[in-house]
Write a structure and sequence with these properties.
The protein has about 325 residues and is of the alpha/beta class. Helices cover about 40% and strands about 20% of the residues. Bound molecules: 5'-O-[(R)-(carboxyoxy)(hydroxy)phosphoryl]adenosine (KG4) and zinc ion.
């Protein structure tokens, strides 16, 4: 079965073609960074309009690259939530319509399920069950994954998601949007241990996380400083180290508590090199396998939607002629395969 995947939940238009036999045949992402940069964050209405402009040409381009015509597609998967409602509606309407026109089944996919499963794409040796650290712009969750649709959230952020905390901290340091990669870049020039930030919620038991205090800590430190470029780098480093170490502490606890032998890192913040290093060290010390997708599949993309959609379409799931999108949607409500 060959599935076309469409992702439009936020500020990236992503399209991909995944084949059950041959793997990922083509994928392309159009990023809206330049469009939103002058506003310092995503402007939902501009995001929707840009998806309208870019989606069909991107579908054409990806089909071309895969060497396929519409006749070669056996199913269409689109992101149905969570995300920005207007942006989701663009992908869902186009995806559902294409499937209708092409006479193939369509399916709305949960964006976070896409992030969660994509580390398995091209890695035959990643098997259920595993622990997933899902860290994106809107979510920070520790998930006990037993199979497709069998997700138990065992810990999560009580306030800002990890990516959100990166973005907000970068903004207050004047580092622009998107904040995560910008902050990580600046942190490379930081002097280790000039500032040491707390490791929130690690002094008590439990797997929940909280990152908004770190952002406030960065702000008070910055306001009391000389605001030089070096100080910004030092604060960025202290923030990044605190987030990475806090997540490693929570992952260690979750692995010990569940006895799981594999840790999968997914979502945009999974592109952070310090976090990857920290978790790799944890894996070595516990004898646990640590897996993460290639950088370009960490942040939003169509491949993750095509891959997750494939798992469900091939099992016979599909939607009727209508479509539904959800701005908020718990992963735990998904059906198990
Ligand atoms: O998964 P994603 O592309 O979109 C959502 O589903 O939210 O994640 C985007 C988030 C943003 O907050 C971005 O700043 C963060 O991932 N991010 C990073 C890095 N690359 C992207 N955060 C830290 N370090 C990075 N290298
Ligand atoms: Zn995402």
């Amino acid at each position: 079965m060959i599935v076309l995947g469409i992702e439009t939940s936020c500020d990236e238009t992503g399209v991909a073609v995944y084949s059950g036999e041959a793997g990922l045949l083509a994928h392309a992402v159009h990023s809206q960074i330049a469009l939103h940069a002058e506003y310092g964050g995503v402007v939902p209405e501009l995001a929707s309009r840009d998806h309208v402009r870019k989606l069909i040409p991107l579908v054409d381009h990806v089909l071309d690259e895969a060497g396929l015509s519409a006749h070669g597609i056996d199913g269409v998967a689109y992101t149905a939530g969570p995300g920005l409602m207007g942006a989701l509606l663009v992908g869902a309407a186009v995806g559902r319509s294409l499937a209708y026109a092409w006479g193939c089944p369509a399916l709305g996919v949960h964006h976070m399920e896409g992030h969660l499963l994509v580390p398995m794409l091209g890695a035959d040796d990643v098997e259920f069950p595993f622990l997933a650290l899902l860290v994106s712009g809107g979510h920070s969750q520790l998930v006990h994954v037993e199979g497709v649709g069998r997700y138990q959230v065992i810990g999560e952020s009580l306030d800002d998601a990890a990516g959100e905390a990166f973005d907000k901290t970068a903004k207050l340091l004047g580092l622009g949007y998107p904040g995560g990669p910008a902050l990580a870049r600046v942190a490379e020039q930081g002097a280790p241990r000039r500032f040491v930030f707390p490791r929130p919620m690690t002094d008590r038991p439990g797997l929940d996380m909280s990152f908004s205090g770190l952002k406030t800590h960065a702000m008070t430190t910055f306001n009391a400083s000389d605001a030089s470029e070096q100080t910004k780098a030092d604060i960025a480093l202290a923030f990044e180290v605190a987030v990475a170490e806090t997540m490693a502490i929570k992952c260690r606890r979750a692995l010990e508590q569940t006895g799981l032998r594999c840790l999968v890192i997914a979502g945009g913040v999974g592109a952070n090199r310090r976090l990857r290093r920290e978790l790799e060290e944890l894996g070595q010390s516990l004898g646990v396998r640590v897996v993460y997708p290639p950088f370009e599949l960490c942040t939003d993309n169509g491949a993750m939607i095509a891959f997750a959609g494939y798992q469900r379409l091939v099992a016979g799931q599909q939607v009727g002629l209508s479509f539904k999108t959800q701005a908020r949607w718990s992963m735990e409500t998904l059906s198990a395969l």
